[in-house]
Amino acid sequence: MTTTPPAHRSVGTARTRVEGRDKVTGAARYAAEIPFTGLAHGWLVLSTITRGRIREIHTAPVLDMPGVLTVLHHGNAPRLHTDYVGLLGVPPDPAACLFQHDRVPFAGWPVALVVAGTPEQAREAAEALTVTYEEEPHDTALTADHPDAYVPEGGMPAETSKGDLEAELAASAVVVDEEYTTPEEQHSMMEPHAATARWDDGRLEVVDSNQGAGWVQGELATLFSLDPAAVRVRSEHIGGGFGSKGLRAHQVGAVMAATALDRPVRVVLSRRQLFSLAGYRSPTIQRVRLGAGADGRLRALEHRSLNQTSQVYEFLEPSAGVARVMYDAPAHRTAHRLVRLDVPSPTWMRAPGEASGSFAIEVALDELAERTGTDPIELRLRNEPDAGPVSGLPFSSRNLAACFREGARRFGWQDRDPRPGLRREGRWLLGTGTAAASFGAGAAPSTAQITAEPDGSFTVRIAAADIGTGARTALTLIAADALDTTPEHVRVRIGDSDFGPAMIAGGSMGTRSWAWAITAAAQDLRERLIPGTAVPPDGITVRSDTTAALGALSRKERHSFGAQFAEVAVDTATGEIRVRRMLGIFAAGRIVNPLTARGQLLGGMTWGISMALHEEAVRDHHTGAHYAPDLAGYHVATHADVPHLEADWVDDHDPDDPVGIKGIGEIGIVGAAAALTNAVWHATGTRHRHLPLRPDRILTAAPGTKGEPTKRA
Amino acid sequence: MREFDYRRAHDVQHALTLLAADPDARFLGGGTNLVDLMKTGVERPTRLVDVRELPLDGIEPTAEGGLRIGATVTNSDLAAHPDVRRHHPALAQAVLAGASGQLRNMATVGGNLLQRTRCGYFTDVSGPCNKRVPGSGCPAVTGEHHQHAVLGASDHCVAVHPSDMGVALTALDAVVGYETGEGPEEKPITDFYLPVGDTPHRETALPPGALITHLILPPPPAGARSRYRKVRERASYAFAIGSVAARLTVEDGRVAEARLALGAVASRPWRAHAAEAVLTGAPAGGATFAEAADAELAAARPLPRNGYKVPLMRNLVVSVLTELAEEATR
Question: What is the C-alpha separation between A39 and A257, in angstroms, rounded?
Answer without folding.
Answer: 11
